[in-house]
Amino acid sequence: MPIKSNQSRTHDPFNFVAGDTWQIEDCLKDINGVPLDLTDVAIGWCLDSLDGSQTLISLTLGNGISIDEPESAAVITVTVPATATATLPPGNYTDWLRVKFSDGEVRTFWTGIIRCAAMPNFIDLQTYEFLFDLSDFRNTMTMG
Question: Which domain covers residue 26, as residue numbers?
Answer without folding.
Answer: 9-119
